[in-house]
Hints:
This protein is mostly beta strands. The chain has one helix at 13-28, and strands spanning 45-48, 53-57, 64-69, 85-91, 94-103, 108-110, 113-117, 124-129, 135-139, 142-147, 153-155, 168-169, 184-185, 188-193, 196-199, 207-218, 221-232, 240-243, 255-259, 276-280, 286-293, 296-299, 310-318. Residues 258-267 have low confidence and may be disordered.
Amino acid sequence: xxxxxxxxxxxxxxxxxxxxxxxxxxxxxxxxxxxxxxxxxxxxxxxxxxxxxxxxxxxxxxxxxxxxxxxxxxxxxxxxxxxxxxxxxxxxxxxxxxxxxxxxxxxxxxxxxxxxxxxxxxxxxxxxxxxxxxxxxxxxxxxxxxxxxxxxxxxxxxxxxxxxxxxxxxxxxxxxxxxxxxxxxxxxxxxxxxxxxxxxxxxxxxxxxxxxxxxxxxxxxxxxxxxxxxxxxxxxxxxxxxxxxxxxxxxxxxxxxxxxxxxxxxxxxxxxxxxxxxxxxxxxxxxxxxxxxxxxxxxxxxxxxxxxxxxxxxxxxxxx
Length: 320
């Protein structure tokens, strides 16, 4: 181990040779010593055997810069496989080619997981491989969704579309109808509404015991259930209409259905009994009613409704 001031003084032959050999020994050993060279130069190297680092003198010649450890660790070089690997810093002054993170110019390959963190660092998302050999999406460590095999996506919460009119497209399943307008299921709703009784000529004043309406809408197909119980009948006139449907009937179609009818209390006047037919005109949100008995059908007159009479029926129609 040797250091040298790299100044060769005038001296006798043997002393000069010894001084020169010491200088060369310092050069080839990078001034290896437990203490720094007494004379220092800019960009001079020093193998500091005390700290175990190879150091270099800075340009100002006022301090040392540590490069790497003399035992071969903590060194600025690539370790591991270098075949298309991406380099990462794995420690102080250490760069390594990652075997699980590669890029061949076309495909980026990441093994096991990808972590995406918010700028604040308070929350992150992960893409990880699962036990099925598929992909799992996590909010931190909570599973959001996963591919349970190569083609099946399983969600842990609802699927929500952010744009109106968008939905599930079934066109890949080759529609079998003779003329298909759409294969997209873009709407599904469950809800309630408040049905009312009106006369076609005069709405009148009607008091109710109950007005219950529920609906299910799948695409443009609406299924409704209505129960209306009348407590008092006012001055309504004309044929009986049930209004307040949640959606207007499609403008190019009309809906007709037979409805279950019941009465309690005073019931219906004589001759008014019989099943009720319901008819929704195109573009309307009200139901026209007809009674059906042995004499045929006729408009169901609002005056036939008496106190403590109720309707209970279901109907399916196509919405606009």
